[in-house]
Amino acid sequence: MNSLPLVSICIPTFNGGKYLQETLNSIQEQTYSNIEVIVSDDKSMDKTLDIIEKFKPQSKFPVFLYHHKPKGIGANWNNCIKKANGEFIKFLFQDDVMEENCIEEMISIYDENPAVGLIASKRSFIIEQNAVGENTNNWIKKYEDLQSGLTQKKNNVLILDKLVFKRNDFRKPPFNKIGEPSAVLFRKDIVNKIGYFRTDLRQILDYEFWYRILKQQPILIINKPLVKFRIHQDQTTNENNKRHINDYNIYDKILFKEYLNLLGEEDKLRLKHKYSLVSKIIRKLKFLFNVKMKVK
């Protein structure tokens, strides 16, 4: 009987054949042994399914492939979690790669800090030739260190707690202070407390989920890259931009409804002015008064 907790590596796929084999190889090379792979596929039309089927007999661990009716990326992520058998969820996207010690180090940190809600790590970058250029260089410069100035360190681990919400720079880019899904690991049963990923969101659904965890429990960031995040022209962020999909216009409303009491005073005042019913009534009355005075 294996004394190590089972970790479910969750891979939501859609037409991921170009980089998927490299992703799977990084799982095969993990130093942590008690794992399973959960693939939830949104009707891929390329070689994704063939790659998965060929990988199954070669793997040292169970590989489960589930065919999912496309209902958005959040629904596919949630399907991965629902199908997982493990105590822990480790997302890995179809174009990203784990360092060989990724899961072992994350589980080790969890063993030392059982009260935390999520473990993440720094990440390095794989830049495909079609993404080389000034835009990518500027993006990396801006988003390479998501926790810059935000954390207290202990034994090379960065600690985030609810005080993060009160910081003056919390509402300043980068809005995601934790990392992409490939960079995190969390207990499956956390969804019983905070719910699943929101299916009405496309761009901010990952860190909206992380922040729900952070409201309940601290988050730890291992201060070294344990995953490689691939930058290329076909990644979801670029596709969303091409289709003018933008969740950021409702981010403030989410903060107002779910996090208002945790925010700093400046953010509280700004959001109350923007969304509270009392503020809206006062602004309406002022407008009517000004109109009346002009008529006179």
TrEMBL record:
Positions of the Glycosyltransferase 2-like domain: 8-171
EC numbers: 2.4.-.-
Top-level taxon of origin: Bacteria
Enzyme class: transferase
A GO molecular-function annotation: glycosyltransferase activity
Entry keyword set: Glycosyltransferase, Transferase
Protein name: Glycosyltransferase
Organism, scientific name: Flavobacterium chungangensis
